[in-house]
Write a structure and sequence with these properties.
The chain has 182 residues and is mainly alpha-helical. The protein has helices spanning 3-23, 27-50, 56-76, 90-112, 123-145, 151-179. It has one domain (3-179): Up-down Bundle (Four Helix Bundle (Hemerythrin (Met), subunit A)), CATH 1.20.120. It has six helices and no strands.
């Protein structure tokens, strides 16, 4: 059990705490937990690279923790029943989760075909994830501030575009991998 893996597990533990705080409308506390989760994500990657502590468990656990936090946050922050004025549009959630399903399905397919045993995210994929996480942070922050600025709609649009482009890029790169000799 390496330090990066412990940090990733901590991020997984933060996810339900974060969601419960949103449901309880304790948005400031939820925002702090969200920032802590983001900090664990940044630290686990930095420590793994800098101290050469990359593990097979971490290869799978880190992206799973990211998907768990992002997907559950997007779903919860789209529900009007949560009682917050700024919510994430359902159309954006459809693309974000659809892209994640595509990536996970592709990974499992290639794993079964013995074509690859891990997927290193591209710069475009990492940028998309940062943008998706930023949307969560902005929705929380603007709900705490009780404002609905137009920049939020721009953040949704930019996230949508990046999500679509990175999904297409992922599909093309993995199609090439499938077409290449073993």
């Amino acid at each position: 059990m390496s330090v990066p893996n412990i940090l990733t597990i901590l991020r997984i533990i933060f996810t339900p705490i974060f969601l419960i705080l949103i449901i309880q409308q304790k948005l400031q506390q939820a925002f702090i937990v969200f920032l802590l989760a983001g900090l664990t994500d940044a630290l686990d990657g930095a420590i793994a690279r800098f101290f050469n502590q990359k593990t097979n468990l971490g290869i799978y656990l880190d992206p799973a923790a990211d998907k768990l936090l992002i997907s559950s946050s997007y779903i919860l922050l789209s529900l009007h029943s949560v009682g917050i004025p700024n919510t994430i549009p359902v159309w954006l959630i459809s693309f974000v989760i659809g892209r994640d399903v595509l990536i996970v399905s592709g990974f499992l397919f290639f794993l079964k075909q013995n074509k690859v045993n891990n997927f290193s995210p591209s710069l475009l994929g990492k940028t998309t994830t940062v943008c998706q996480v930023t949307v969560i942070g902005l929705v929380l922050l603007f709900n705490i501030m009780q404002i609905s600025p137009p920049i939020l709609n721009w953040a949704y649009l930019i996230t949508l575009i990046l999500t679509i482009i990175s999904g297409i890029d992922y599909s093309i790169s993995k199609f090439r991998l499938l077409s290449s000799p073993k």
